[in-house]
Amino acid sequence: MPKLSLEDLGTKVRGERGDQGLRETAISIGISPASLSRVERGHLPDLTTFGLICQWLGISASEILGVEIADGADEHDPEYSWGASVHFRADQNPSEELSTHLAELIRSAQRKIQRQRSFGS
């Protein structure tokens, strides 16, 4: 069970920011003030922003997402955690095979989330 849900991320960020200004906080995180504002209002961040916010908060992205990190892997390594976003930026037209595998991955994640919600986790 994640300690913090994606839905609660904005509230957590706003709380951690405290009296510090939005722009100053965004700079310390490494994101734009507009991105920080959207997250605080409850919008889900893109993968890169999500990773930077997790680092700033000192929390594990894997715990929020409810996934396990492989032994010896560094979840803060962009090639490990956020590598998919890099591939999509480089290749705007992924192959049919890649699209099929990604669709199955997403469906699998959705089923896991649905099971957790069904069991009240």
Key words describing this protein structure:
121 residues; mainly alpha; 434 Repressor (Amino-terminal Domain); 2 domains; 63% helix; globular
Description:
The protein is mostly helical and 121 residues long. The protein folds into two domains: 1-67 and 75-90, lambda repressor-like DNA-binding domains (434 Repressor (Amino-terminal Domain), Orthogonal Bundle); 93-121. 63% of the residues lie in helices and 0% in strands. Helix 2 crosses helix 3. The longest helix has 23 residues, at 96-118. It is globular, with a radius of gyration of 16 Å. The protein starts with 8 loop residues before the first helix and ends with a helix. The model is unreliable at 78-83 (pLDDT under 50).
List the helices and strands and how they pair.
Elements: H1 9-17, H2 22-29, H3 33-40, H4 47-57, H5 61-65, H6 78-81, H7 83-90, H8 96-118
Helix pairs in contact: 2-3
